[in-house]
Request: fold
Amino acid sequence: MALRLAASSTFAKASAMRTMSTATGSSLDRMQTKESYDAVLEKFAQIRACAVLRTATSDDCPKAMQAAIDGGFEIAEFTLTTPNCLDHLSDFRQKHDGKVMIGCGTILTIDDAERAVDAGSEFIITPVMLPDVIKWCAERNIVSVPGCQTPTELVMAYRAGAPLQKLFPGVAGGPMWVKAVSSALPFLAINPTSGVDLDNAGDFLKMGAASVGLVAPLFDPAAIAAGDFDQISKNAEKVMANVRTAGPFVRRG
Reply:
């Protein structure tokens, strides 16, 4: 029988790899603490859902994200494709620090990552697997979540030092695909985004996903265009209720 480990030790292997890679890097710029790194992973393991926001206008961004937070989200990702993304990220980090964990997505370069961390980002999300960004984050005790499409990419991201691996875009089979891959490769911590909706988020988690990201199903473009941010809060309440039925993430290994 596979040994089941508590959520607090979920990412022990990845953490050990990161520690070895940073043994001589304590003087690197933007270095974070091991405690902050572990706290980010623990938050993902406990909350298990991230609100992923991209809006066409700067004005809609804070309204939409606040609505998601009001509906129960405690992990928020601002994407660089949103106008004035880093200004909004910084504002929300100051406003919600200690309660809501704030990160930055659509990171494509080390320069992007540097600017995001300077703005207050607590974790880094990339749409594809970028070994240079993963390495830069790992050396600085910064959690990175790179986008991966195949089991091979997921494992390569893990070996490069990413403790969470974003499944993007969506794959045929959805939750059952995650179940198959996470059963065969239990050291992975898969974070599906595309293909996750208000109804199946809990299914992904129960089938082995470490956490999920909610994009358009949460931030309904029609609701945002109409200024109906109450609908965003209702969407958040619904999906978080489904997520909570899965409980904290427990690693099989």
